[in-house]
Amino acid sequence: MKKFLTLVLALLFLFGAGALAVQADQNYKEKNSPQKGWEKHQKLKDVKGHWAEDAILMMNTKGFIKGYEDATFKPNKPVTQLEAIVMIVRAQGLEDEAQDHKLNDLLKKTAQIPAWAEGYMAVALKENILDEGEMLSFRPNQGAKRIQVALWITRALDLDDYLDSDDDLPYLDKKDIPEDLYNAVVLISESGIMKGNNKNYFLPNKAITRAEMAILLERINGAGTDANIYISEFSGIITDVDDDEITVKGWSVSKTFDFDDEVTVYLNGKKSDVDDLDVDDYVKLTLNKKGDVIAVKATSPDQDDINEDDEKEFEGKIVAINLIDDDEGFITIKSGNKNYRFQVDEDTDVEMDDDGETLELDELKLGWNVEIMAEGKMARSIIIESSDNDNDDDDEETEYEGIITKIDSKNKRIVIKDENGKTYTFFVDKKTEITIDEDDDKDDAELSDLRIGDEAEIGAKGNLALKIEVDRD
């Protein structure tokens, strides 16, 4: 009670009559709250081709981030502090709870919270995303800074329960990060949810845009306050799909995932359904904390540019190889934003472009850049651009050493951090050799036998772990 009375007096002093620093935006509710008669998903006219288009559309479909009544999204407009809190609460799956909560009158008035948003603020207080003291400086209509959003997300996900915050930051502007918020930036950077720019600046005081917020919401959606904070992504070619699950062949491993009941699907840039997905579609899956698919971005092989009787050259990167036998099947390449699938057989010539060395079809590798001369949908020759593939070291085993920081049994992967603080993620399959050396006894082990904190040596090709050796002596 004493603490509350102190807060009341402080609020009255700071926000006395005639001294309100923030004037409520009279149009805020009309622009930003759910509108009667609106569909959850709007057709937004100013996001096509935007770098965050996919995230914007998915988060808009889920109702986490709204467009405006004129069907614009305004992706480069700063997000206000109130908008950011509302979006984070929604992305945490607390929408229903927000509708049932109220903010006490004093906090509601002093922070100038509109009636429609008070439930979100009440939930934010309840979940410790904000505290009552911070309501003193809360400015609902001011742009939310990156450092503020980092703090709120860190609290929303309880990141300090999952990650070590003792690491130093690599950012060149880390001196601009307040000391009491330093750990929040460490945690959100370690989680991969928010990073610095390509010049290694975090820009803590920069206002975050609506497009940037959509990306963050996509990363935290489904995490929950008791979640494994690593929201996973998996990309590859569909090899099997039905209404309940999808099997995707990735770079080094094939995996099967269940669809979430409310999965969002975009196919070739348009909102679609699971029924529209097909074998050989190239997909990027977003997984929730349970490992279920909550979002699918898919691209179908673009056969419209391929005429049956035409002979034409195509250039691109191999994204799928589906051989029925060693000398017959299909190959899919990605060229720009299009995928092309070609039939191959024993008459398809495969050779290197530098010395003319010939290869067999089963020697082709994902990620190689190639030129394909096709007659209709049949690949007559495949030329491998060796100069572009010289740096591809996926065929060589690379050694890594570090501490295991995460074990994802559902998706069969582990994360390690090396002595320089760099993290690496590896998939584990049935061929991965796992051994544990304990008390001078070296025993074969399973993924479930590993522990967070184990010192591990990993031999990998690409992101597939071939062997994992743990020393507990």
Automatic annotation (TrEMBL):
Domain SLH: 39-102, 104-167, 168-231
A Pfam family reported for this protein in Swiss-Prot or TrEMBL: SLH
Keywords per UniProt: Repeat, Signal
Record-linked PROSITE patterns: SLH
Signal peptide region: 1-24
Tagged with keyword Signal: yes
InterPro entries (alphabetical): Cell_Envelope_Struct_Comp, SLH_dom
PANTHER family: OUTER MEMBRANE PROTEIN ALPHA-RELATED, S-LAYER PROTEIN _ PEPTIDOGLYCAN ENDO-BETA-N-ACETYLGLUCOSAMINIDASE
Name of the molecule in the record: S-layer homology domain-containing protein
Biological source species: Dehalobacterium formicoaceticum
